[in-house]
Amino acid sequence: MISSKTQQFISDFDFIIDEKDNDFELSGLKKSSVIRISRLAVVENSLLIGRIGSVSEIRLSKIYERIIFSQKLLMLYKCILTVRIASLFAFRKYSK
What we know:
Elements: E1 2-3, E2 15-17, H1 24-27, E3 33-35, H2 57-95
């Protein structure tokens, strides 16, 4: 998701495309915006009606790295949560 509400920026997750950036004009955006890595969605190609712009290869590479990093964090969180839930059930079973 791309939003002009830059105050929603989450450090270490999202990216700001600032009007001063070298690739801003290429983006087709009208003002500084935030690329919300935490708000990505999969959309079928047929639903897209056009393209407003693009980002530099360097920025795109950094976005991919951030997506991979955030997915690893999510997987780690799920593992920790699973272990905690399993521990809780084991504790209840043996504490009776």
